[in-house]
Amino acid sequence: MQPIKPRDEKAFAYIILKSFEQSHDIVLLNTCREIEGKYIDYVSTIGNKELIPIGPFIHEAAIGEEEHWVKIQPWLDKKEKCSCVYVSFGSECFFSKQEIEEIDKGLELSKVNFIWTIKFSTGVNTTIEEMVPQGFLERTRGERMVIEGWAPQSQILNHSGIGCFVIHCGWNSMLESISFGVPIIAMPMNHDQPFNSRLVEELGIGVEILRGENGEMKREEVAKGIRKVVGRRLGKK
């Protein structure tokens, strides 16, 4: 999956603005003034609408989700405070085999503990073993955890062992990370994600992973971003 191009960003912004124009005079937003105060005021003024931030809304564990957490919590409990990276790209971002390889090689190069949830698009007949490089799961077993499918994200982020969140910058996941005080390592792909990534850096709550000239992921940059953020949290250079 290639990241969104500049002209696609403009098209997406246009769609959002048209939807905003057709909305009611009062608009409720899943955000807060601490995150977007100046933008709320600006859009309220030029749009002649009252924007009311009522967030952030955070997903809480539902009945039946505990079975997933009981497998993860004992592993996290053994880790040093802020020493682990949580990696998840939501339910709508899916990567090619090459992109997954660059991410997992970057994770290995960073030499930090991590939890990585990998999801595949509906109808795709594949497995984690087929998508990651040969030997990756064996090399990362024990000190690292790879999960296929869903994981209790809010509970993971709220654990003291988590030091940063590698994320596509989907809005809901961003709000969760901010609410739990977990720095963000941004790898935006499409839609509102590039805008959200810029907001992350503007707020000083994370960094964006640099890509190659053609938008490709680079393992060295993935590792560099992770080491930078985790090192800060552990008090290391």
TrEMBL record:
Signal peptide: none annotated. The keyword Transferase applies. GO terms for biological process: glycoside biosynthetic process. It comes from the Eukaryota. Keywords: Glycosyltransferase, Transferase. Pfam families: UDPGT (PF00201). InterPro entries: UDP_glucos_trans. GO terms for molecular function: UDP-glycosyltransferase activity. The keyword Transferase applies. Belongs to the UDP-glycosyltransferase family. This is Uncharacterized protein.
